[in-house]
């Protein structure tokens, strides 16, 4: 995904049936420019000085709306932590258990054969892998 202007974000939200209020535009802009798979707390902390009336509830509700309208995906790579990604294309997520960074990786289930799923229609899938990233492994040696 490329960086979008505010006008492009407003159009993108509208194209997905979402009214482009200031908090929604700012939250989507944050998601689109910070490809770190942020949590609600990270988004709230980053935007609360700029949007003084912003609440965590607004961030939760906005992200939920984005997920329902296919503007973002919820990444549930840990039991107690929801992260969000503006990239709604099919791809996987890898979380480093040392540095806690979440990386995207290319993964398209349509090019993979799973015999036990033959004959089924796959509408949605998520691939999460945990391990130690290359950077952390290099620092160990």
Short key terms for the protein model shown above:
two-stranded antiparallel sheet; Arc Repressor Mutant, subunit A; 2 domains; Dna Ligase, domain 1; 141 residues; 35% helix; globular; 5 helices; alpha+beta; single chain
Q: Which class of secondary structure composition applies to the elements?
A: alpha+beta
The number of E-state strands comes to 5
Strand percentage lies at 15-25%
How many structural domains? 2
Distance between the termini: 34 Å
Taking the sheet with the most strands, its summary is: 3 strands, mixed
| H/E element order | HHHHEEEEEH
The CATH superfamily of the largest domain is Winged helix-like DNA-binding domain superfamily/Winged helix DNA-binding domain
- CATH C-level category of the largest domain: Mainly Alpha
Q: Give the second-level CATH assignment, the architecture of the largest domain.
A: Orthogonal Bundle
Strand order of the biggest β-sheet? 4-3-5
Helix content: 25-40%
Note the overall shape.
Answer: globular
Overall pLDDT metric: 91
Give the count of helical stretches. Answer: 5
Description:
The protein is 35% helix and 19% strand. The chain is built from 5 helices and 5 strands; from the N terminus they run H-H-H-H-E-E-E-E-E-H. The strands form 2 sheets. The protein has a 3-stranded mixed sheet with strand order 4-3-5, with no helix packed on it. Strands 1-2 form a two-stranded antiparallel sheet. It folds into 2 domains: 6-72, Arc Repressor Mutant, subunit A; 91-140, Dna Ligase, domain 1. The protein is an alpha+beta fold and 141 residues long.
């Amino acid at each position: 995904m490329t960086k979008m202007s505010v006008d492009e974000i407003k159009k993108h939200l509208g194209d997905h049936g979402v009214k482009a209020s200031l908090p929604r535009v700012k939250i989507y802009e944050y998601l689109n420019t910070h490809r770190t798979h942020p949590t609600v707390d990270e988004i709230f902390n980053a935007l609360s000085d700029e949007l003084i009336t912003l609440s965590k509830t607004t961030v939760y509700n906005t992200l939920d709306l984005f997920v329902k309208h296919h503007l973002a995906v919820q990444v549930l790579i840990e039991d107690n932590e929801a992260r969000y990604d503006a990239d709604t294309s099919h791809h996987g997520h890898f979380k480093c258990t040392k540095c806690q960074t979440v990386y995207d990786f290319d993964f398209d289930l349509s090019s993979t054969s799973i015999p036990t799923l033959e004959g089924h229609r796959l509408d949605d899938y998520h691939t999460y892998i945990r391990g130690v990233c290359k950077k952390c492994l290099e620092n160990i040696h």
